[in-house]
Amino acid sequence: MTSPIVRFAPSPTGRIHIGNARVALFNFLFAAANLGRFALRFDDTDFARSSEEFARGIEIDLAWLGIVPHEVFRQSERVALYADAANRLQRSGRLYPCYETQEELDKRRKMQQARGLPPVYDRAALRLSASDRAALEAEGRQPHWRFRLEPGVAEWNDLVRGPAHIDCSALSDPVLIREDGSFLYTLPSVVDDIDMRITHVIRGEDHVTNTAVQLQLIGALAPHAPAPIFAHHNLLIGAGGEALSKRTGSLSIASLREDGYEPLAVAALATLTGSSDNVHAVRSLGELAQSFNLSHVSRNPARFDPADLETLTHRTLALYDYDDVRERLEALTIVGRKAEPLWRAARGNLARFDDILTWWRVVDAEIEPIREDESFLQDAAQLLPSEPWDETTWAAWTSDIKTATGRKGKALFHPLRLALTGAESGPELASLLPLIGHAKALARLVGVRE
Fold it and tell me: Which intervals of this chain are the motif 'KMSKS' region (predicted)?
């Protein structure tokens, strides 16, 4: 395979949700696995709804997931290319003006359905004479422009669905230009794919029908250019089976970030859900790319349950080495000689990354110890060995306490944990005790200020 060039082309009309991120991840991982290039292309020709604020928000969301594009394009800056393509299609007779209102089209479709006919545009506009068109425009009507599809079957080998085909005679000629002269999605997308030499178009299965139109457009605009290879993957749905939407903000990347989930956990779940691969934690997108394979993607809808992110975030944090999180720890002012051993000790006990602050306070600040059995704790304090301490100190100390008091099991360990950490459970005390140190441990056992 030659190095692929792929693109993620969101409309900046809102913040992206997990379903949009899945498309971006599929493209990014495919490019990474095959030493290709990933372009971010903002489909922002809907000038009324698109905004720079949303575009910037999408870039922030992608960067949080670890997706950094090689190139960024804005369709709003490339309108001249689309106008030139439209002119060429008009001259060849493939793009023709239509004057029906939406109400007239709706009425016509209902009549066709009542007669048992498919609700396909009947090309009535092609039968208009020049004088007919002039009369309609004199009434104030402005045309929208449709692309005339050729008869036949569009065929392609889909990297997810296998051999695929669409009978173009079952499709309406698509509208490419609105009455106000603005472009719909289809024409700019094809023009850009040709100009950017996109080799693979990886997107949701809701675009399958569009493929037939786009193949014909490529043939009309660049008959000698190779068509991209298509891959249409299954769609993510919510835990209750609901469709995802930017407009409702359902499962937005911004909300998942605010909830404290790990970006790699979000990426792994969004990518592996709905495939034959087991969902598992990863340390990097590079690791995820190594096992990514479009042929493993299921044909059935993929249910995304945020509850699964709880477990996956915990497992992801447990995988990180200190170097993976050093900068994030420094941002929380977790620095110094205790930072690395604390991370190693606590990483398997974190539900969210910021939970590390709880254990940093345990080893480097004051806490409110829970002193349930003061007499026992006084005895334990008397047996507390002098420093230096290491990870063998806990076992040696508790062995001495067991011998002296006869306690064992929970009766021995639980009061010590409550006093030393102020918590019912947590990292192994063999690792925490040397970080707490003699002075803090003694103060918590005997109940004095540290």
Answer: 243-247
